[in-house]
Each structure stands twice: as structure tokens, then as C-alpha cells.
Task: inverse folding
């Protein structure tokens, strides 16, 4: 399946005809891929006749296609009341923004102004949709699975596809990356204040766990947002001299450093591990010499950070040491997680091909879990009274898909992820070893492409590792779709014409 622009718009420049009206031609170069860069959407004929009015309109026309994408990210700053995690089908502001994003993309495609889906992109995005449909049709409770089908399609197909088609070049990529950083800084600031003032979620008997505006029932929300912003800022800061200015790289590294305290105060072991893995990969891809220098600087900063946390340092050390004790002396949350993983494996063995059906894990949990599984997680703080949060998933995305969708769903998601990783690394390698003059048309080699590649690969690694300890759920889930869209654009977008 290929989404194409009308021939009249795509070939007008090549045939010597006038440019498409109101800048409908490709922005940032001659194509939609990561190598596209430089030219903006202007209309010379109008600018020559009405320079004042054209100059006033061009900035809005230039950035308007990205407005819904940016809104989908930044709307996560809005607090959301989540007093019952068992309620399904609730639409959050981020969900509404993602719906507007998809509709906006569809309208642009119908008007001939959208991007293009290559056959590979269509396959990577289409295969999961088919797998979700099969799992829903084979479910013992199709009505329950239908809501899950909509959610999975939103996160893994529609939102990534819309972002892929709306991103026009490296400028858009960097703009979206900085939006992630801005969101992370806002949520991180709220989280630090919560921890310092004792208004956060309960942890070890004290209300010091930073959760941002997501509340104690979504303790992974702020850590997810902060982690993604940190990885994006770190990658942008490690770009080469030809990718961005020194001032931008310095600002990005400063933002990454500022996001470390809220990440630590989230006390989320999964987010710590995923962030460490992603930043290590970004460092190694940026160059071994630079990696050594940055690691030494981070080690020194870590010593200062832990020493300066005061009372919180003991909690941090206890939480950090618990990572190494998951086998010898696991705590209650780890024991529950092991039981849930075992239950997920049992469900898959019961229905290996299609699983038990999307969103049917809770219904089959007790029949496969051991007697040691607790009744739920204790949650309190951040303005909420104590309550038990039910265990609705195995807290492992891969096992959740395997248990609910079987081998068909797992193959679709893992296969698509493998394609994104391999193609993303190949394009990053091409961007780093070859830098021809701007406008030469070589895919992935334009200025700014290398830092975008580092960010895309880093975000993908973070998401892949985090899925070992978490799954989709909560308002921040929409951000997963945006990240997958960014990675898909980097790995699958059509390269500019040579």
C-alpha cells in the first residue's frame, strides 16, 4: 500500500512548471526522508508580489503541519484524574489530541499534502493491525477485546503512522524532540517539588515519590516522560559540529542533566535501567572517545547528586541495591511480578497461536498465578487516600502480548521492532560516515541527520528495554505512539530523490 501525492504536485518542479500553490511541495529539501533538509515551504511568486504579507504567513504555514503532533506531546502537562485504574474506555486529553492528530493527517493526505508510506512502512504498520484483529476475533470475550483492539491500534498503528507522514525533515524532528524535553522539564519540576515538600506518592512510608501531574495510580507516568526527554536531550547534545550549533548542544546537555534528579526521585527501577541502557547506546554510537569522557563526567556528577540528596540518598541507595537483589532477596513487588510473568506464560501455553484475547489477562490471572500473588499494590499520597491497585497486567509488554495475542501478535510486534532497529542503525551509520554537500540527495547525510539518528535509536532502545518492566497503560501511553512514529520516520521514511 502506498500513499502518494498527486502527480501534478510532485512533478511540477521537474517539468519546469510553477511551484505548487501555497507551498504544497516537499519541505526541507526534495523529499520526506531523514536526509531532507534546508528548503522551507515558500511561494516565490507570491513573495515577490506581496513580500510583507508572504513573510507574515510563511512561519505559520511552515509549522502548521506539526501543530497537532506538538499538541499531543505538550497536552500531557495537563493533570488527569485517575481514581480508578479498572475503568476502561476513558478518554484523556492526550487521547483526544491523538485523535485530532490522526484526523489532521488524513485531511492532509486527502488534500495531497501528506507524506508517503513506502511498502516497508506499510508492512511494518499494517502487520500489527492484522494481528490485533485476529486476536480480537479469536477472543472468548470479543466485547472486552474490542476496546483493547482500539487502544493497540491507536498506539502501534494510527499515531505512529500519522507522525511518520507529518514529519517533513530534520527541523521537524528536532522541534518534536525539544517538545519532549520541554514536557519532561515541566513534569520533572513538579515531581521535584513533590518530593521536597512531601506531597508526592507514598514510598517507604513517606510521601516523597515524584509522580508529576499523573498521580499515585500512574507512578510510571512521570518517570516515562522524564526518561524520554532525558534521552532525547542527551542525543541532541552529542551531535557533531555540523549537526547543530554549540549553544544548542550545550543547552541540550544542560537539560539532560537537569532531568536526572526527577528521574532519581521517581524511584522507578525500570525507568532507571532503560535510561541507562539507552544513554549508553547513544554514547557508544556517538564515538568511543566521547563516550569515555562523558561517562567520567556522569560518574562525578552522580557522586555529587547522591551526596546532595540528604535524606533521599538512603532511599535511593536502597532502591538501587534492590535491583541486584531481585534473585537472592526479591521484595514484594518483584515477587508479584514473577508470579504475573508465570501466569502470562501459562495463558500462552493455553492458547499459543492467538492468546486468550486482548484485555483478558485479568480474567485469566487467578487461574494461572500462584497462591503467593498479593491482592494488589498499595498506593497513597499525592492527594489520594490509601487504596489497593489491582494487578491488571504482568508488567512486561512482551509477555502481555504473548499471553493475550499469542505468537501471531508477538511476531508482528517483534518483527516490526526488529525492522525499525536494523534500518535505523543502518541509516545512522550512513549519516555518520558520509557527509556530502547539502543538496546532493544522499539519504540520511544532510546536516542535522546524525543527531536525529542518535535520538531515534536512543528512544527506541529506551522503549524496548522499558517494555521488559512495563506495558501500555495510563495517560502517558500516547507518548509511546509518538516515539514509535519518530523512530518509524527515521527508519522507514522515503529518502529524497537523487
Result:
Amino acid at each position: 500500500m502506498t500513499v502518494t501525492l498527486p502527480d501534478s504536485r510532485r512533478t511540477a518542479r521537474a517539468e519546469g512548471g510553477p511551484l505548487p500553490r501555497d507551498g504544497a511541495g516537499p519541505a526541507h529539501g526534495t523529499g520526506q526522508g531523514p536526509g531532507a533538509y534546508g528548503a522551507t515551504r515558500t511561494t516565490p511568486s507570491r513573495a515577490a508580489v506581496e513580500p510583507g504579507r508572504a513573510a507574515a504567513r510563511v512561519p505559520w504555514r511552515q509549522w502548521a503541519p506539526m501543530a497537532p503532533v506538538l499538541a499531543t506531546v505538550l497536552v500531557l502537562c495537563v493533570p488527569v484524574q485517575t481514581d480508578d485504574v479498572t475503568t476502561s474506555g476513558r478518554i484523556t486529553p492526550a487521547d483526544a489530541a491523538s485523535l485530532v492528530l490522526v484526523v489532521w493527517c488524513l485531511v492532509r493526505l486527502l488534500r495531497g499534502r501528506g507524506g508517503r508510506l513506502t511498502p516497508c512502512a506499510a508492512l511494518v504498520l499494517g502487520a500489527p493491525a492484522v494481528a490485533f484483529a485476529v486476536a480480537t476475533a479469536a477472543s472468548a470475550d470479543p466485547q472486552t477485546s474490542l476496546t483493547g483492539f482500539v487502544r493497540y491500534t491507536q498506539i502501534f498503528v494510527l499515531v505512529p503512522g500519522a507522525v511518520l507522514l507529518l514529519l517533513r525533515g530534520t527541523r521537524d524532528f528536532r522541534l518534536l524532540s525539544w517538545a519532549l524535553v520541554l514536557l519532561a522539564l515541566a513534569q520533572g519540576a513538579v515531581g521535584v517539588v513533590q518530593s521536597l515538600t512531601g506531597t508526592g506518592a507514598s514510598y517507604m512510608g513517606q510521601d516523597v515519590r515524584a509522580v508529576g501531574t499523573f498521580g499515585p495510580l500512574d507512578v510510571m507516568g512521570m518517570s516515562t516522560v522524564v526518561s524520554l526527554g532525558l534521552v532525547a536531550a542527551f542525543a541532541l547534545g552529542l551531535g557533531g559540529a555540523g549537526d547543530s550549533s554549540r549553544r544548542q548542544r550545550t543547552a541540550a546537555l544542560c537539560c539532560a542533566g537537569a532531568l536526572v534528579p526527577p528521574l532519581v526521585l521517581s524511584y522507578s527501577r525500570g525507568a532507571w535501567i532503560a535510561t541507562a541502557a539507552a544513554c549508553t547506546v547513544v554514547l557508544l554510537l556517538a564515538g568511543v572517545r566521547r563516550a569515555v569522557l562523558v561517562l567520567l563526567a556522569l560518574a562525578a556528577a552522580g557522586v555529587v547528586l547522591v551526596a546532595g540528596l540528604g535524606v533521599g540518598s538512603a532511599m535511593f541507595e536502597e532502591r538501587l541495591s534492590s535491583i541486584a537483589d531481585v534473585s537472592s532477596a526479591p521484595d514484594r513487588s518483584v515477587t508479584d511480578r514473577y508470579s504475573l510473568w508465570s501466569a502470562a506464560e501459562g495463558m500462552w501455553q493455553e492458547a499459543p497461536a492467538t492468546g486468550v484475547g486482548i484485555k483478558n489477562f485479568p480474567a485469566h490471572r487467578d487461574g494461572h498465578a500462584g497462591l503467593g500473588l498479593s491482592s494488589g499494590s498499595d498506593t497513597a499520597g499525592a492527594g489520594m487516600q490509601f487504596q489497593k491497585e489491582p494487578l491488571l497486567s504482568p508488567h512486561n509488554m512482551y509477555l502481555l502480548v504473548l499471553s493475550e495475542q499469542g505468537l501471531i501478535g508477538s511476531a508482528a510486534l517483534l518483527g516490526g521492532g526488529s525492522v525499525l532497529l536494523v534500518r535505523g542503525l543502518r541509516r545512522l551509520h550512513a549519516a555518520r560516515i558520509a557527509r556530502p554537500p547539502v543538496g546532493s540527495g544522499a539519504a540520511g547525510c544532510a546536516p542535522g541527520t546524525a543527531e536525529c539518528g542518535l535520538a531515534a535509536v536512543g528512544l527506541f532502545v529506551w522503549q524496548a528495554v522499558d517494555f521488559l518492566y512495563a506495558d501500555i497503560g495510563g495517560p502517558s501511553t500516547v507518548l509511546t505512539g509518538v516515539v514509535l512514529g519518530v523512530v518509524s520516520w527515521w527508519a522507514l521514511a522515503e529518502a529524497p530523490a537523487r
